[in-house]
Structures are given as C-alpha cells and as structure tokens.
C-alpha cells in the first residue's frame, strides 16, 4: 500500500516517448510475458531444479509455472497482499524463486531482492526501509536456519505481517506450499510501473534500492536474449544467487523465459555439483563471476563429465584477467562472452561474433543503440576516445534515481539524468569498453560488492574502536578482498582482530562483508587537505 512517501525520479516524458517510438519499450509486463509463453508452448519445460524430496529432480512446464504464479497470487491476495506492497524475497536457487516473483509481478506487489547470504542487519533494513509486509525464506539453507532469522526480523519490523517458508518445515510460520488458492482475475499491470526493487552494490552506509519497471527490464531481457543467441532450445544454468541482477537478467533466468528456453537451478557453484547438471540437463549457457570461472577452468580438463552441450560461458561482475579469458575455450570448449553490467541498468556484452582478441581484452559494448555512454574527467568534461575516465550512462533501461533516496540521487546522477557508475573505463575505437578501475568506495570481492562505509559503521559501533577504514587489497583468487584499518580507542580494552570480526558478524552482517583482514594502526595517512587517503591505505601506508 502506497503509505511510504517516496520520491523516485523516472524518465522524463520525452525520453519515455522516444524509447516507446523506437520499439525498446513494448508495453509488455512480466505477467503477460509468462502468459504468452505458456500459451505458445504450454508443455515445454520452463524450470528444473533438484529441490524435490531428498534432492529429487523437479521440472515445471510453462503451463505449470503460469498456473502456479496465478494460484500463489490468489493466495497472497487472500492474505491482503496487493499492488504496491513490498515483499522481501530471500530464496536460494529453487524453482519457487520464479513462482514467487511471477506471483508478485501479477499482483503488482514489489519483490525486494535479498541474497541468501544476507543476515539480520541487511534484512531488517530492507524490511523497515521499504515497509515490507511479507518476507519469503527457505527453512534452512547452507546450514543456516532462516526461520530463526525471520523471528528476529519480525520482532524488529513493525509493518511485517507474513513470513512464508519454502521447504519441509515452516516452523512457527506459514508454508508457502499452503498459500496457493483458486486463481482470481487480476488486472494486468501498467508496464511503466515499478515491478521490483533490485539491490545496489552500493558505496554508502546503507544499501540503495533500485526501482526497475516492466518496460525497461523486459527490454533488457529481450536485448540480452538476442545478443546471447537464446532460443527455445536454450538451457540456462543459474549458478550465481538467482536474485542477483546478472543471473536474473544477463540473460539469466528471466531472459531465458523471455526466449522460451529452460532454466536449470544450480544449488551450488562447485564443479562437482554444476558439471553433472550440465551433462544431465544438456545445459547450453551459463554465467559466472571470475573466481568461479577460474575454478571451473581448473576442474574441467580431465573431469568425468561431458560438458560438450555448453556453448556459451558469460563471465562478469568483476574484471576478468586477460590470461584467464584466454583459457576459457581450451578448458571448457565453449565461447566466452564477457559481460559488464550493473543492477542500476547498463549492461555491456562482447558479441558472439566479435574477434577473439576483443572478447578476451574488453568488457563488451552496450545492449542498446540508445544507451548513452560518457567518459569524463573529475570535472565532468568529456575525454577523448581511448582515455580512461569516469563512466556516466543514460538509456532505456538505466534508472534515473534510486528508490526514496533524494539526497543520494543528487550525487549519483547528473542534472540531466546520467548515472554516475563509479567505474573507470576507456572506450576502444570499436566502441567496446574496458574497465580500468573504480572511483567508488567499494570492494569488489570476486563479484560480491561491499560498501566500505557500511562495514566501517559496524566496526565503529565497537567500544574499543576509535576509527576504521575499509579498503580493497589484492587477492590471488578473489581479485580483491577487504582489509579494515582500525585505530583503537585509548583507555579501552585492547580488542584483537578475531574478536572484532566476531563482533561484526554478530551484529548480523552478511559473512562476505566481514573484513578478511584487520590491521591496527596509530594513524591514517591523510591527503593534502587533511582528508583520510584511502588511496594511500590501499598502498599499505598506515602508521602502526
Ligand atoms: C569489471 N567490473 C565489473 C566486469 C560488473 C551483469 C553482469 C554483472 C552485473 C553486476 C550485473 C564487471 N568487469 N565485467 O548487474 O546484469 C562491476 C562494476 C559495476 C558493478 C555492478 C549484470 N561487471 N562490474 O555485477 O550491480 O563496478 O552488477 O559498476 O552487482 O560491478 O555490480 P552489480
């Protein structure tokens, strides 16, 4: 219910008209997208997982997924959940992920996409900030009891009324399997309205939420499906956490459904789980972050599993080293497609017919001819082609503002609506982008984004911490890991690194955000104007 007052800038009318006239925005909602596919090929399999009893295979056809979405939408409506309501969805890679999000899309309720790794700190924030009325969880995942987490979150979130559990034992909550009811007639949604809230990698104290519309996201799915050559025979293996923007849309599970293909949910990224699934399900395409690509490259030669159906491996989320890129085809026998994307919008791909050197050395070019790219200096002045600078972008599927964050929007967007990506890039003469670095205060830990300020705030909550700065440092496997430089508070009990890590974890922060390393210092290096220099910290100069 629209009782949370918020201001979210959207595309000015002249841009919306242009994007419609150009045919980018087709006026198709997610609800209609699934319905038309189910009508065209009801008996084709839409989604497969291994989450049946005892890990049994489940396969739902398009007709089944469509009906399940209708039935779940009816059951949720009967519980008072409706258009505009926010629902935090925290599910692992199971078929119900798609059932839930399509049910919410049909209701016009907004999924808020949480990751399975999120804990009390993140989830409570999502619930309170969005005024979420429901929270959807697995019972136990990766040895962690999400029902216990939900109990805590429920106590802290005044608007939260429902917790739905996917799994065998709902505990004190309602089993999602008991919710579905006879379908009720629901009006199709307005394609220009917000369909869901995606998470920003973020560089601020609290994560920002990204409002994506049916029109803009369905266009990015269509563009992605074309560029990745998806069709009804494509089988996409969803390896990364399903809610993340990359496995959701590049081309991801939703792009695969757009193309009428089959989504296979992979419960874990390890080769001994993923490789048998590739063989057994005839997987043709998948997407990985660089550290996982490296693990697969090392495991594939000599592995017992036939991976010959795999045509395309997308790699993105963090910079892929050229040397690793060169090893993809020899090791896995498939075409590498680099992808440089962001949940805020812009997605670049190398094309399947790009020459091999371009595929190995660039992060691709944008989906849309209407994606506007600017590479600028610190004063927002355009740089010549080939020079490295800040990437600004605007286009038919890049947001014009975060959800309910006016102050932050004023900094994160230019006055004329370009999103400041925080990435440092250069353009090649062919129009491909090369990611050279980052200006935002973030750690990219093997594709998982950590906002330094968020972690610093948790460290600062410790009574023995006077000051804290979190920066990236090189890691041979992850690319980057996080290092916290901490100044102890004089006259307090001398806290050590393990206790400080435990403190942060116990505050309910996702494990991947807990600093990999903590270094105690007496002072931080400063810049000429007396600000703390993260650049010098990264270079290792804190005085101890
Ligand atoms: C270097 N940095 C990259 C790449 C993303 C597809 C693929 C990835 C994401 C994603 C996504 C990179 N090389 N190939 O949403 O649809 C860094 C940049 C970028 C940030 C966005 C998709 N690919 N990055 O990673 O919202 O810094 O989206 O701004 O999680 O990841 O992070 P995120």
Structure notes:
The protein has 544 residues and is an alpha/beta fold. Among the domains are: 30-189, Rossmann fold (3-Layer(aba) Sandwich); 442-538, ANL, C-terminal domain (GMP Synthetase, Chain A, domain 3), CATH 3.30.300.30. Helices cover 31% and strands 25% of the residues. The strands form 7 sheets. It has a 9-stranded mixed sheet, with helices on both faces. Strands 4-3-5-8-9 form a 5-stranded parallel sheet, sandwiched between helices. The chain has a 4-stranded antiparallel sheet with strand order 19-20-21-22, with no helix packed on it. The longest helix has 17 residues, at 62-78. It is globular. The chain binds ligand J2J. Ligand J2J binds at residues 201, 245-246, 249-250, 316-319, 338-343, 347, 363, 421, 423, 435, 438, 444, 449. Residues 201, 245-246, 249-250, 316-319, 338-343, 347, 363, 421, 423, 435, 438, 444, 449 line the site of ligand J2J. InterPro entries: AMP-bd_C, AMP-bd_C_sf, AMP-binding_CS, AMP-dep_synth/lig_dom, ATP-dep_AMP-bd_enzyme, DHB_AMP_lig. One of its GO terms (biological process) is siderophore biosynthetic process. Residues 454-531 form the AMP-binding enzyme C-terminal domain. Keywords: ATP-binding, Ligase, Nucleotide-binding, Nucleotidyltransferase, Transferase.
Architecture blueprint of SSEs:
Elements: H1 13-21, H2 30-40, E1 45-49, E2 58-61, H3 62-78, E3 86-89, H4 96-107, E4 110-113, H5 120-130, E5 134-138, E6 140-141, E7 144-145, H6 146-156, E8 162-166, E9 174-175, E10 194-199, E11 209-213, H7 214-227, E12 235-238, H8 245-249, H9 252-258, E13 262-265, H10 271-281, E14 285-288, H11 290-299, E15 312-316, H12 322-332, E16 335-342, E17 345-349, H13 356-361, E18 365-366, E19 372-376, E20 389-394, H14 406-412, E21 419-427, E22 433-438, E23 442-445, E24 448-451, H15 452-460, E25 465-475, E26 479-488, H16 497-506, E27 517-521, H17 534-538
Parallel strand pairs: 1-13, 3-4, 3-5, 5-8, 8-9, 12-13, 12-14, 14-15, 15-16, 26-27
Antiparallel strand pairs: 1-2, 6-7, 10-11, 16-17, 17-18, 19-20, 20-21, 21-22, 23-24, 25-26
Helix pairs in contact: 2-3, 3-4, 5-6, 7-9, 11-12
Bound molecules: ligand J2J.
Residues 201, 245-246, 249-250, 316-319, 338-343, 347, 363, 421, 423, 435, 438, 444, 449 line the site of ligand J2J.
Enzyme class: transferase
Keywords: ATP-binding, Ligase, Nucleotide-binding, Nucleotidyltransferase, Transferase
Organism: Streptomyces cinereoruber
